[in-house]
Amino acid sequence: MDNVPPPAEELGILDRELRQLEARRAQLLARRAWLLAALQPPVAPGAPPAPPSAGFGPPHIAPGGPGRPFAAPAGPDTSPPGVQNLLLTLGGILLTVAAIAFTLVSWGAMGIGGRSAVLGAVTVAALGTPYALLRRGLVATAESVAALGLVLMVLDVYALHRAVLPQTDGLGYAAFASAALAALWSAYGLWLPRLRTPLPAAVVTAQLPLPFWALTGGAGAPPVEWALLLTAALDVAVVVWARPVPVRVTAGVAAAMSGGGALLIGGFRSLAADSPSAAANPAAVLVAAAAVALFTAWRVPAAAGLSAVAGLAAVAGLGGVVRVAVPGPGWAVIGYLLCGTALLAVVRAPVPRRLLPGLAGASAVVHAAAALMALPLSALALAGPVTALTDVWSGTSPLPDPDSTATALLPAPLALLITAAVLVAAARHRGTPLATDPAGAQPPPAANGAVGPARADRLRTAARCGAVVLVWAAFVAVPVVFGFAHSAAVVWQLAPALGLLAAAAWRAPGAVTWTALACALTGSVSVALLSLATRPATFTVLGVLVGAFVLAAVRTRGPLQALLGCTATVFATGLAGATGAALELPAHRAAPLLLAVPALTALLGARLRRHSAALPVEITGAVAGLVALPLAAGHLPVLALVLALCGVIAAGTAVRAERRPVAGYLAVVLFVVATWVRLAASDVASPEAYSLPVTVPALAVGVLRRRKDPQASSWAAYGPGLSATLVPSLVAAWGDEHWLRPLLLGLAALAVTLAGARLRLQALLVIGGAVLALDATHELAPYVVQVVGALPRWLPPALVGLLLLAVGATYEQRLRDARKLRESLGRMR
């Protein structure tokens, strides 16, 4: 909505107004200081200061000019000290207790004349005394006595019922008495306007007559909800037209309580109604309450938020009538939703602009509630195909059967579409001219609920995103609503996924684009699971999804392209797995087929080079390759083949300089592990016969590389060769019952460790030391077990405790030693 005038011009106007207010304030302060100086009496030289006033305030000075004091009455006690307040309060309480005790206890000991005379005289005296006290300026004392008089009037009413009208209905008498007291207290407060208690007390008492009358259930008595609503309307009138602030505050609180009670009763009866005639009265109550709340929000700027309550009450009332006229709860939701949509018509109505946010918020609450009630069906349609994972290619549709007719389920997608249409309209709405107040003045935008351009743009963007999600959710629920066959359901679910994917690829990046892409990804996963029911559907859907995501990735740029490429890789992995299943291959024989995905992503990465999407796609392909490892784990020869093929792919990737630091090491590890697995698969008892011929040339190549490049890492030069022999020998030694292999392995590991320490080579030191430690542990383990078994049971815990104490006592030193060891290893190559 455009600001009138423009923001820059309005800011200048506000600055000028503020400067004028500051100038006027300075003038008034200067005049006040002059008047205070003029009112001070002249003091003769050497005269003692004037004695303090007999009252609690300063002495009164004649307003005609300085030097003309006059004898004033005692100072007003509107702000007395705390002690005076305490004394007055205690006195009023004691008198009130005495009056109650007299009425309840001593009443029966006196005749009717004495009773009337005593209470009447005391009440009249208590009500008349404040007049004399106010004339002398004793306002606080008058307040206490007046409060006592009000309590005595209540006791008079009670006494009258007990003595004169004992047969009268209690509720009816309470209604009449509370109305009379409210009227008398109002008159009393208007007669003595300086008293602050009577008028608020009258407002509180006025809450009782109509509800008490309604509770009597007599002829002509209104229902309770109407009585509460009429009471709230009277309170609103007091809030709007009364002047004293305490009276308005009291009436506002009372109106909220009475109006809230009417809304609760009306809403409960509207929901409990089972026929249009039964729903008519609650609807009238709710609509009337909405009118009262809207009038309050219009006339009281601080209560502008009540417009939201008015909107919700109107929707609840009218929607309740629709609810009993339509079949099923689903169509009742549509009825409430249409009422909430009609509420948005006030945007074009000539109403004060400050009411619009509340009314629009009420409509938004209704639409959000309707959407939340409809979304579970869409979630069921999306999550239902997960059950296909347990019964692949069974021919049975995995879509859930909600055991309901299409007529009963149709309101859910309709509610989503209606809400989406409202969001689209809200996104297209550019605002209307500012409405004027009843007086004709045009308030500033802040008072009319206007929003800034930036916030308006954010709200429109959010509305567009919400519309996209709701339309998509409505589409995916249709197969469940109408019970589509499997093939039709697959085609129906695939269409919105491809459409949203195309929209995300051909639109400029933004919030709407990412929302469409999120819906497309979710829908594509759901339809891919749905297609697992039949073999043709599986290959068709996965092939279409791979092609669609590849084309979308080619069309886009940046992070969006990387995400689309990774998604295409995931679906390609699924297609490769489906191919293996279609060929009826065992799991370990289907594993090599999955390696086609990382191979293709490696070739694509070589083509893209340093493109931003290359690395994410290659990582996704590598993860797909990892999936092949558990599939082949049950057959060691195939696992060795898979590891070797993975090493080939990693080695091919390491040809590129930007991937060499990671892919090169990975290729070496994969080749070595493949060799070990192959040896284990062949039941080789002496792996050294196969590993030593590899280790010797590998170490020779490492020596040549170190001579050519002294800065090369010892891990790259010697790590593969040493691992190729030492690790398989260590595995064989752990299962060898003889002593020769562990001895030779220990000597070889010791030689490698010493060489690493002498030459300061990290790989030799770490690999040799680790193998030596594990080999020694294996050889010493039986003896350690024997020794531990021969020791007393209390000794091992004691030794462990002593060790922990020693480590704790020298913790700082051990920490420094660990740092030195780490630094020493870090300096090695």
Descriptive account of the structure:
The protein is mainly alpha-helical. 74% of the residues lie in helices and 0% in strands. The protein is built from 31 helices and no strands. The longest helix has 33 residues. The protein is elongated and about 125 Å long. It starts with 6 loop residues before the first helix and ends with a helix.
Can you lay out the helices and strands and say which pair or pack?
Elements: H1 7-39, H2 82-104, H3 112-135, H4 139-163, H5 170-191, H6 198-205, H7 209-216, H8 224-241, H9 245-272, H10 276-299, H11 306-323, H12 328-342, H13 356-383, H14 406-409, H15 411-428, H16 453-482, H17 486-506, H18 511-530, H19 535-555, H20 559-582, H21 587-594, H22 596-608, H23 614-632, H24 636-654, H25 660-681, H26 688-708, H27 714-734, H28 740-759, H29 762-790, H30 795-809, H31 811-827
